Amino acid sequence: MPDELRRMLRREAVLEITGHHPKTFERLVAQGLLPAPIKIGPRAVAWPEDEIVAWQVRKIAERDAAQNAKREERERAARERAEREARRVEYETNRAEPHRERRNT
Question: How many domains does the chain have?
Fold first, then answer.
């Protein structure tokens, strides 16, 4: 006998939690992108709640990772623009300074 009982969710409850349209939900289950149901009776299936929660946590982590990657890319691009601008200003400054030095000598 298992050490702990697992709460089982019926299809309507899982649809409400995931927010998917029923057809999309079935397609995602068939593709293995959502947990597969467990047969709990001759004509009834359910999903372990902890598997649905794990799916939610995974999706949130994927979103957060994508947002972090986009933010890091924007920051990297901004740093590169700033470095290019600093090099351009330094080049323009160095280019103008030798002319001033020649006049003074």
Answer: 1
Domain of residue 78: give its range: 8-104
- Mean pLDDT split into 10-residue runs, the chain, 105 residues: 83 96 96 96 96 96 94 94 91 75 52
**Measured CA angle at 48 (ends 50, 67), to 5 deg:** 45
Q: Is the pTM of this model over 0.70?
A: no
Identity of the residue numbered 11: R
CA distance 74 to 70: 6
- If you ran DSSP here, which 8-state letter would residue 35 be given? P
8 Å CB contact between 28 and 34? yes
The answer to whether position 22 is within a domain reads yes
